[in-house]
Amino acid sequence: MDSSVRFELLDSILLIHLESPDQFPRLTRAVLRQLLARMEKVSTEASVRAVVITGTPQAFCAGADLEEVSALSPVEALRFSALGQSLMRAIESASKRVIAAIGGHCLGGGFDLAMACHLRIASSDARFGHPGGSLGVITGWGGTARLPRLVGKARARELLTTGRIITAEEAHAWRLVHCVVPPEAVLATATDYARSIVQGAPKNLLEELLQDP
Description:
By secondary structure, the protein is α/β, with parallel strands linked by helices.
């Protein structure tokens, strides 16, 4: 199934919707290029003051398209990895705050995408993991560096090597996500956080919200 990206400007909040006919958005080369191009523009856009990235109720993002990846030559695979890394760095270093509104599955490269964001809001049915670990496949998009910073080396090692999937409650207990809300409230909650940033929340509140979990 082909995945796509839809951009929506809500006041001064840029909503990025990851979409797919099967409800499991994937980070294809085309999607990565669209996301990277848009994130590179965000820092200079006066009309955008915060960004929210979301997926479908079934999946925030199911990671790379394995069918596409398996057909890549070694050189193409290197370029694909570099493209994903460029996107994650662009999100992490963005001058505008980027919030992930996570529902359903958040796996592989989709997990890397969420970790690159500054804030993560999860629905109660969200699930996180790098299932490639059980196959001996390690992410090439920065997850091996970001995950230990967020949850510590021991927990990161467990997830990256076993492929274990954790619940939203576990992710919150590990300080991987900032809060857990009902599935129907995840996008509204993320948008409310973005609106607080746009409208100028009190400095102490912003410091609390934006510090690493």
